């Protein structure tokens, strides 16, 4: 059994997201006046060969904290799906 | 007396390694050697320099993958035992990712990659990296980065300030620390910090690019000279 981890990494709200700001301005310029704000993050898919969902979840948390996100300025969340 | 070995780490994507080798080689009594990222051998280096560039293509985040390279395991261990480590630009990013320094660097405030001269002041000259500077001096040293916006939570900043770990700040030509003189949005105009112990320094400006008259400034030389004379 394998799992696919669908991981989202986003900048913390307190961190200025300059890419998001640029997109936000572009959307407003396109006439979408109801657009409030845009934030840009990363989407990462990782396959994990574990039989046990808890083991897959533990690995996923570990890799998010160790490499995939920088806890100083980013948050992460993920969903595990059976592959 | 044999020359003192200075290790310059080469990651795939480093692009200031040769400039740094060149700058180091211009000092008497030291011999720079390149340390390949895949090696575990520090070659007896008495100080380590992590140069600028785009290690591992800056994929994921600047410095995030380089920190796990074999040579960095040795650098982190040796830094823990007091070996001097200097991280310039991407090297600073690697030091933050590896936990040798606190905080993080995010995208520049105005979105642009900035490649130009900046003015900085060594606000703490009681360090092994800045002993030959004066705190009122204004140095002209270039920056070249897209992600140099230094950030740390307020309690970390407070602790850095309290322990005099802020070593360089961006200023204007007169040495005034102001928002206009802040090129990238860094908290408190911070351009460089060190660890509590004082043997690890990271900074965004490139002293190796300001180490000979021909390049327009020699203001970076005394950073290397300060370090080398202690070894």
UniProtKB/TrEMBL annotation, chain A:
Keyword field: ATP-binding, Cytoplasm, Ligase, Nucleotide-binding, Purine biosynthesis
Alphabetical GO biological process terms: 'de novo' IMP biosynthetic process
Primary localisation category: cytoplasm
Location(s) in or outside the cell: Cytoplasm
Annotated catalysed reactions: N(2)-formyl-N(1)-(5-phospho-beta-D-ribosyl)glycinamide + L-glutamine + ATP + H2O = 2-formamido-N(1)-(5-O-phospho-beta-D-ribosyl)acetamidine + L-glutamate + ADP + phosphate + H(+)
Protein name per its UniProtKB record: Phosphoribosylformylglycinamidine synthase subunit PurS
Subunit record text: Part of the FGAM synthase complex composed of 1 PurL, 1 PurQ and 2 PurS subunits.
Broad enzyme group: ligase
Species for this entry: Pelodictyon luteolum
Domain of life of the native organism: Bacteria
PANTHER family, A to Z: PHOSPHORIBOSYLFORMYLGLYCINAMIDINE SYNTHASE SUBUNIT PURS
Key word Transferase present: no
Family: Belongs to the PurS family.
Function: Part of the phosphoribosylformylglycinamidine synthase complex involved in the purines biosynthetic pathway. Catalyzes the ATP-dependent conversion of formylglycinamide ribonucleotide (FGAR) and glutamine to yield formylglycinamidine ribonucleotide (FGAM) and glutamate. The FGAM synthase complex is composed of three subunits. PurQ produces an ammonia molecule by converting glutamine to glutamate. PurL transfers the ammonia molecule to FGAR to form FGAM in an ATP-dependent manner.
InterPro entries, sorted: PurS, PurS-like_sf
Pfam families: PurS
EC number assigned by the record: 6.3.5.3
UniProtKB/TrEMBL annotation, chain B:
Compartments in which it is found: Cytoplasm
Active-site residues per Swiss-Prot or TrEMBL entry: 89, 206, 208
Main location: cytoplasm
Substrates-to-products reaction catalysed: N(2)-formyl-N(1)-(5-phospho-beta-D-ribosyl)glycinamide + L-glutamine + ATP + H2O = 2-formamido-N(1)-(5-O-phospho-beta-D-ribosyl)acetamidine + L-glutamate + ADP + phosphate + H(+); L-glutamine + H2O = L-glutamate + NH4(+)
Domain of life according to the entry: Bacteria
EC id: 6.3.5.3, 3.5.1.2
Molecular function, one GO term: ATP binding
Pfam families: GATase_5
GO CC annotations on file: cytoplasm
A GO biological process held by the record: 'de novo' IMP biosynthetic process
Functional note: Part of the phosphoribosylformylglycinamidine synthase complex involved in the purines biosynthetic pathway. Catalyzes the ATP-dependent conversion of formylglycinamide ribonucleotide (FGAR) and glutamine to yield formylglycinamidine ribonucleotide (FGAM) and glutamate. The FGAM synthase complex is composed of three subunits. PurQ produces an ammonia molecule by converting glutamine to glutamate. PurL transfers the ammonia molecule to FGAR to form FGAM in an ATP-dependent manner.
Assembly and binders: Part of the FGAM synthase complex composed of 1 PurL, 1 PurQ and 2 PurS subunits.
Protein name: Phosphoribosylformylglycinamidine synthase subunit PurQ
């Amino acid at each position: 059994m394998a799992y696919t981890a669908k991981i989202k990494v986003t900048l913390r709200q307190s961190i200025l997201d300059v890419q998001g700001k640029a997109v936000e301005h572009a959307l407003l310029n396109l006439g979408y006046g109801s657009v409030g704000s845009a934030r840009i993050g990363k989407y990462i898919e990782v396959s994990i060969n574990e039989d046990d969902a808890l083991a897959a979840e533990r690995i996923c948390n570990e890799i998010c904290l160790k490499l995939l996100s920088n806890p100083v300025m980013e948050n992460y969340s993920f969903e595990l799906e059976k592959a | 007396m044999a020359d003192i070995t200075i290790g310059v780490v080469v990651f795939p994507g480093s692009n200031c390694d040769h400039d740094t080798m060149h700058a180091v080689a211009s000092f008497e009594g030291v011999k720079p050697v390149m340390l390949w990222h895949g090696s575990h051998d520090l070659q007896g280096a008495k100080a380590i320099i992590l140069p600028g560039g785009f290690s591992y293509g800056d994929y994921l985040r600047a410095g995030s993958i380089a920190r796990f390279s074999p040579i960095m395991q040795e650098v982190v261990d040796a830094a823990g035992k007091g070996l001097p480590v200097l991280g310039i630009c991407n090297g600073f990013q690697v030091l933050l990712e590896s936990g040798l320094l606190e905080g993080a660097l995010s995208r520049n405030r105005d979105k642009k990659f900035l490649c130009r001269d900046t003015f900085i002041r060594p606000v703490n000259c009681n360090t092994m990296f800045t002993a030959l500077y004066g705190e009122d001096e204004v140095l002209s040293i270039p920056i070249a980065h897209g992600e140099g916006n230094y950030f740390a939570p307020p309690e970390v900043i407070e602790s850095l300030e309290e322990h005099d770990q802020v070593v360089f700040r961006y200023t204007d030509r007169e040495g005034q620390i102001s928002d206009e003189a802040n090129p990238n949005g860094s908290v408190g105009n911070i351009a460089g910090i060190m660890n509590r112990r004082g043997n690890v320094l990271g900074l965004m400006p490139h002293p190796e690019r300001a180490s000979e008259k021909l390049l327009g400034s020699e203001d970076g030389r005394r950073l290397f000279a300060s370090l080398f004379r202690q070894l």
